[in-house]
Design goal:
heterodimer, A: mainly alpha, MetI-like fold, about 0% strand, globular, B: alpha+beta, Rossmann fold, OB fold (Dihydrolipoamide Acetyltransferase, E2P), 2 domains, six-stranded mixed β-sheet, five-stranded antiparallel β-sheet, 8 helices, 21 strands
């Protein structure tokens, strides 16, 4: 009886959290009549892709591609730079013991506080509405997080592995590539996923610093909220398009996130 | 093959003066063991030779070439670490080949060298495995294999056996000694274990608090320690130390121990300080025999403790207020509380100045 109660509790919590996601997917496949029907239609009578089709026909779907380019590029750049910085902080104590804390403190600042000066700066340099501008900004915002996270992962790498590689014929760069990256692989992917998701979901900077060329999907969704009416079908379809790539990315990378990968390196 | 010369080497870690002026020459092809208690600077010295620590002051040369500012990878050395330092994401073959690949060696030669090293170490069957699938002894063999394939001019070992259990340690110790005889390169080996030092070394460098206490062949250090510290560090069970006072009565010098026992001393004792330390190794302290030599020192004591080890038995008695261990044949019988007649030949005794610690 107690067990049954627990299952019921778990089930209700599950429904509570999953239902909005289900509803989003459901709407994206519904006809306009079904969307506004009362009492609600709990599931679409027939799977139809008209809502998606219209996004691709109007070219709105490219905003997902834009998001992908921006989040992907900034993640790759931030991961490479951040890992190198973190390595330097850990092994050479660059900037002293507390420099890392100062770096992460940069992440505490609310973006909205600096958005206006950045906008003016970007207008001055002509970077508004360009891939480069947003990639630069996302990279800058993600770097402290990457440095902080990678610092922890690199600290866990037994230093003998690096010293052994140095004696065996590696330069510092080769050590980074052949020892640090493989050893911190789980950490690299975990950090990359979070970095990617941050850039993917970013809204404020994308809204202020983009016009028509590099609209991201988060900004695109807001275009469907009209003064007269909201285009729920498009909002839902666009949101699904924006959710699925992240979901697939994380699901793919998940196998790299396994723990215990460093077992057997040194006596432990 | 190469020789190593170190002169005037100093090293600080923050405020701690770790190496306080090391001067050392290691001849070509020799197996040198750096030994000393924890924190004596032996590992730091080894790491400085490897180039993993910077030289602050002084000079290191290998084969006559100044190495102070040469990067570790350009010193042509191979190093085996205490923790094996195997790459968990590479299999045994790739672990051994790592240094060769870093030096861009042709694939055919890599294969040949790894295979022959694996044969030498008896790990041919393990080449496809990953480090996590190996036992401690196998891991250490792989780590040694990684050093062998490099065909380096100098081998450095940083306490390579201290993570192994006692039995495996004895086995690997023998293998390392054999390895030195087979490949005949200069080897420098760091350990805190005096047995390892005694059994492996051509020459022992005994270190203490950042300085070299004594350098020499193992038996030289054992038989003729330069200081009280060296005498106490080498040998198991530990040497017995007894404090006493030199008394001169007429032509004879005697050592009076704290509990009143007297021991006659050689003639040179007249130049010694008033208070000295007598050191006698347990192996030289035995049951008093019937035949008596003029250099024998005899005394009777009550047995406090008996520790049989199989081949020998260690008996503890009190002399001069201190525990004194005698090593005797296991065949002799006795019980705790029995009175035992013990003797040692005073020519086997060592004498030290308590003020300086130096041998007299």
């Amino acid at each position: 009886m107690v067990i049954l109660g627990r299952y019921l509790l778990a089930l209700s919590v599950l429904i509570f959290f999953v239902f909005p996601i289900y509803w989003l997917f459901a709407i994206s496949f519904k006809t306009p009549e079904e969307i506004f029907h009362f009492p609600p239609v709990w599931y679409p009578q027939k799977i139809q892709f008209a809502n998606y089709w219209v996004l691709f026909k109007d070219g709105d779907a490219t905003s997902v591609w834009n998001s992908f380019i921006l989040a992907g590029s900034s993640t790759i750049i931030a991961m490479i730079l951040g890992t190198i910085c973190a390595y330097s902080l850990v092994r050479f104590k660059t900037g002293g013991e507390n420099f890392a804390v100062w770096i992460i403190s940069q992440r505490l600042m609310p973006p909205i506080a600096i958005i206006f000066p950045i906008f003016l700066l970007y207008v001055f340099f002509g970077w508004v509405d360009s891939y480069g501008g947003l990639i630069l900004l996302y990279t800058a915002f993600n770097l402290p997080y990457v440095i902080w996270m990678m610092r922890g992962y690199i600290e866990d790498i037994p230093i003998e592995l690096e010293e052994s590689a140095l004696v065996d014929g590696c330069s510092r760069w080769a050590v980074l590539w052949k020892v640090v990256f493989p050893m911190a692989r789980a950490g690299l992917f975990a950090t990359a996923v979070f970095t990617f998701v941050f850039a993917w979901n970013e809204f404020i900077f994308a809204l202020v610093l983009s016009r028509t060329e590099v609209t991201t999907y988060t900004v695109q969704v807001t275009h469907y909220f009209g003064g007269q009416s909201n285009f729920w079908a498009k909002i839902a379809a666009m949101s699904v398009l924006g959710t699925v790539p992240v979901f697939i990315t994380v699901a793919t990378l998940q196998r790299f996130l396994v723990r215990g990968i460093s077992m057997g390196a040194v006596k432990g | 093959m190469s020789d190593v010369k170190i002169s005037g080497l100093h090293k600080h870690f923050g405020a701690v003066h770790v190496l306080k002026g090391i001067d050392l020459e290691i001849p070509t092809g020799e197996f040198t063991v750096l030994v000393g208690p924890s924190g004596c600077g032996k590992s730091t010295l080894l790491r400085t030779i490897a180039g993993l620590e910077e030289v602050e002051q002084g000079e290191i040369t290998i084969s006559g070439q100044r190495m102070n500012d040469v990067r570790p990878r350009d010193r042509n050395i191979a190093m085996v670490f205490q923790n094996y330092a195997l790459y968990p994401y590479l299999n045994v073959f790739e672990n051994i080949a790592f240094g060769l690949r870093a030096r861009k060696m042709p694939e055919s030669e890599i294969k040949e060298r790894v295979t022959s090293a694996a044969e030498m170490l008896g790990i041919t069957g393990l080449l496809e495995r990953f480090p996590r699938q190996l036992s401690g002894g196998q891991r250490q063999r792989v780590a040694i294999g990684r050093a062998i394939v490099r065909k380096a001019q100098l081998f450095l070992f940083d306490e390579p056996l201290s993570n192994l259990d006692a039995q495996l340690r004895d086995e690997m110790r023998g293998e390392i000694k054999k390895l030195h005889q087979t490949i005949d390169v200069t080897m420098i080996y760091v350990t805190h274990d005096q047995i390892e030092a005694m059994t492996l070394a051509d020459r022992i460098v005994l270190m203490r608090e950042g300085r070299i206490e004594q350098v020499g062949a193992p038996l030289d250090l054992y038989e003729r320690p330069a200081t009280h510290f060296v005498a106490g560090f080498l040998g198991s069970p530990k040497i017995n130390f007894v404090h006493g006072e030199v008394l001169i009565s007429g032509s004879e010098q005697v050592l009076r121990l704290v509990d009143g026992e007297t021991i006659s001393l050689p003639a040179i004792a007249s130049t010694w300080p008033k208070n000295i330390i007598l050191g006698i190794r347990p192996q030289y302290l035995g049951l008093a025999s019937e035949s008596r030599s003029p250099d024998d020192v005899r005394f009777s004591r009550i047995i406090d403790l008996i520790q049989p080890t199989g081949s020998r038995t260690y008996i503890t008695v009190k002399l001069g207020g201190r525990d004194l261990v005698a090593e005797i044949e296991s065949t002799s019988r006795g019980n705790v509380g029995d009175v035992l007649d013990l003797s040692f030949n005073r020519l086997n005794a060592l004498f030290f100045d308590p003020a300086t610690g130096r041998a007299l």
